[in-house]
Amino acid sequence: MSWIYRISMKMKLFLALMPLLIALCWFAGSGMLSRIQSEQQMHTISQLTALARSAGDVVHELQRERGMSAGYLGAKGEQFRSELTAQQKITDAALATFNNTLSATDSAILTGDIAATVKIFNQHIQSLSTTRTAIAGLSIDTPAAIQFYTQTIAGVLNFVGGMGQLTTSGVMVNELAAYYSLLNLKEQAGVERALLSNIFSAGRFGDGQFRLFSDVVGKQEAWLIAARRFSTAQQIADLNSALDSADATRALDLRAVAFSKAAEGDFGVNPGEWFTAQTQRIETLRKVENRVADTLQAHAARLAHQARIDWQSYLAISLIALLIALTFAVVVARSIHLQLTGTLRAINEMDGDLTRRLDVPGSDELSALNRAYNQSIENIQHIVQEIKSGAGVLRSASSDIAAGNQDLAQRTDEQAASIVETASSMEQISTAINQTADNASEAERLTQAMERDVLEANRVSSEASQSMADIRTSSEQIGRIVKSIDDISFQTNLLALNAAVEAARAGELGKGFAVVASEVRNLSQRCAREASQIRELVDHNMEKISEGVARVSASNTALKAAADNTGMMKQFVSDIAQAASEQSLGVSQVHLALNQLEQVTQQNAALVSQAASASQMLDGQSAAMAKLVDRFVA
After folding, report:
1. Where is the Methyl-accepting transducer domain positioned along the sequence (predicted)?
2. CATH number of this structure's domain 383-632
3. Cβ–Cβ contacts within 10 Å for residue 362, how many?
4. Is 238 exposed, middle or buried (0-12, 13-18, 19+ CB in 10 A)?
5. Which residue, 98, 121, 120, is CA-closest to 48?
6. How far apart are alpha carbons 413 and 395 in whole angstroms?
7. Residue 374 CB: number of other CB atoms within 10 A?
């Protein structure tokens, strides 16, 4: 999944919204397609209903022509001649109207079973003129003529019955079924009209006619039940009211006569009267049929209109929803993109400036991220400020150390010069004592000269004693200075340790400062070690100086005794010579001690110079650290 981190945030939002937009478009398209299909279906039903109504008119006229043809054939041409001729013209007019309606109907819906039914119907119509000629010439029997008309009408009825398969609407299926039932009811009534017209014309039932008559009556009852089952309550009430009217009940009375006198015949019913009564009943059914057809067509048109409104509304709502979704997606993507780019630009422009902050425009996740970043920068700023304060203290301390070390180096150099002078003086004393020992034999002769020499030696000894005291004082000052250096090194070590701790807290930003703090700590420890060595050398010098002071004091005492006892000098020349030898040895030792003290002092001067250089380096490092911290905090 590493590829997802290489995609921009805007593209990620687009990919996240893409499935939803595709689903929205798919649901909108399928919903509109379903409603468009419903509209087309209702248009088809509406056109086919108009075609079926026109076909119903043809059926109605064919039913009348069939009845008159049956009466005409039953009466051997003595009745219904003029009525049949007039009816044939009316039938032709109805056929012309049907053909016009068929031509105006969209050919795309005249496919499958509907096209086959229309084709069969046209084939029967083409045979209509032949059948009419046969009826006029009485060259066709009644059952054959009735069968021809019945088959022709059945084709049209099959066309109407197949319309129920063109819709999925339950209400439309019921209305089509009710309309189909009424057409079949009226068709069976027409068959009954033709059949009884022939029977009443003959005055009796022929072979199989009573069974056919009973079957026709039973079918009428069955189709009436079906019509009532599929009709609405209003349509049922309308149908019952029509069937209970006087125009419809008169034919039922004549039917009852046919049933009651079926065995003996001689019904006493005029075929024209029956034809008229049954025609009135059929016309009554025809009115009900037309009202049902009107309702069916109006309902189909209403459903088509509703379907059109539905898919147009669906399209409008889908487009609005899509537009809102896209607008919202663009606004969200733009806001996130602008906020992210602004944040990245602000971070790039900071360039180590810890005083700048990111914008926090709201309370969302990106704003919370900016707020957390600002809090982190503020914490780092506080840490760096503390480091800056420590760096200032360290710089001040290092400056003081550097100044003290410079002063200490100067005084150490001065002390070394003093020791050199003292060593030179001790060398002179040693020469004088050696001369005294060599000239001990001449001491008696040179008593007065020796007295002067003794006085001079006493004076020099006093000066040497004073010099030794000064050396002791200088050594004590060196010890105090070394102790101050040791204390400063300890404080510097503590400051470096604190700086290292603060640098560790600062993390990545404190790495450079941690290196500087480590170097400062190393220098302070080195300074402490060198100061310890200086202290040891000074302590050793102090011991030697004390010994020299003691010996110089003894020499001074001896010289005073020699001055006070000049008279006894002759007697103790040998003792003086021996004492002079011992003094010469002591002075040599003092001279050696002074040489060692000079070397130690020279080493101290070198160490003090190194300490001064280290202090200056520490001061430079402190200045660099302060400059580095100033880059982050003003």
Report:
1. 390-619
2. 1.10.287
3. 12
4. middle
5. 98
6. 27
7. 15
The one-letter amino acid at 490: F
At 14, list the tokens.
């687009």
Does 401 have pLDDT greater than 80? no
The residue ranking higher by pLDDT, 106 or 242, is: 242
Report how far residue 153's alpha carbon sits from residue 160's, in angstroms, rounded to the nearest whole number. Answer: 11
- Burial class from Cβ neighbours inside 10 Å (0-12, 13-18, 19+) for residue 526 reads middle
Q: Specify the range with the lowest mean pLDDT, choosing from 41-50, 301-310, 467-476.
A: 41-50
Across 491-519, average pLDDT? 80
Alpha-carbon span 431 to 554, nearest angstrom: 18
Contact 186, 285 (CB under 8 A): yes
Angle between helices 511-564 and 365-438 (to 10 degrees): 20
In 10 A of CB 95, how many CB atoms?
A: 20
User: Is pTM, for the whole model, over 0.70?
Assistant: no
The type of residue at 526 is: R
Give the Cβ contact number of residue 20 at 10 Å. 11
- Inter-axis angle of helices 246-260 and 170-202, to 10 degrees? 50
**DSSP sequence for 263-280:** TT------HHHHHHHHHH
Average pLDDT for 105-131? 77
The full length of the chain comes to: 634
Where do you find CATH 1.10.287 in the chain?
Answer: 383-632
| Nearest C-alpha neighbor of 228 from the set 218, 237, 216, 220 | 237
